[in-house]
Design brief:
With 193 residues, the chain is mainly beta. Helix content is 5%, strand content 60%. The strands form three sheets. A six-stranded antiparallel barrel has the order 2-3-5-8-7-6. A six-stranded antiparallel barrel has the order 9-10-11-14-13-12.
């Protein structure tokens, strides 16, 4: 079973045009990538616009690239897989909603500063996590986060982790652990089979 969770960032690459980031609005599932139903997405295109290209498709199994069509806010897989599914992390992910608070170190024009962030972790692995959070004065995370110190409410207790960003888009921060308490590391290994 393959799932594309709601809130997943997908990228449509059309020949001769800039890459088009899309956000899935609802979860879709299928036994195979080629059997996925149309994916409702948030797009900046006008109604009736039709685009064809290669879609970077992020699923519960990893990431792959497929031929796809974007039309009226829906992405439809139109061709076979251009590549095999590639797991983006060396460790399996565990989706969920785990409340998180912490501090982000931001590199700004005025120098480095610390900004409070709060939100939740949407998926976690022994190698990193995906945080969806906001800053104190904005619904989005501050730009140019260099690292973050997070306190995440996990089933075994509060996990404290220093995170190095890998990707940051609006309110999402995907990162790898720069530091993790050894007890939390052991608990994560049991939690993420």
């Amino acid at each position: 079973m393959i799932a594309v969770p709601a809130g997943t960032t997908l990228t449509l690459r059309c020949q001769g045009e800039p890459d088009l980031p899309l956000m899935s609005l609802a979860q879709v599932r299928a036994d195979f990538v080629t059997e996925l139903p149309p994916i409702m997405v948030l797009s900046l295109d006008e109604p009736g616009t039709r685009r064809y290209g290669i879609l970077e498709l992020v699923t519960s199994a990893g990431v792959t690239w497929v031929e796809a069509e974007l039309r009226d806010g829906r992405v439809t897989v139109t061709g076979g897989l251009a590549t095999d599914v590639v797991q983006r992390r060396g460790a399996p992910r565990r989706p969920g909603t785990y409340p998180a608070t912490g501090t982000a170190q931001v590199d700004s024009a005025a120098g480095r500063k610390l900004v409070a962030v709060s939100g939740h972790v949407e998926d976690v692995s022994t190698g990193g996590l995906l945080l969806r959070a906001s800053g104190p004065d904005s619904p989005h995370l501050p730009r140019d986060i260099e690292r973050a110190l997070l306190h995440v409410a996990m089933p075994w207790g509060v996990m404290t982790a220093a995170l190095k960003p890998v990707e940051q888009i609006a309110d999402q921060l995907r990162g790898t652990y720069e530091w993790l308490d050894p007890a939390d590391s052991a608990a994560l290994r049991e939690f993420c089979p």
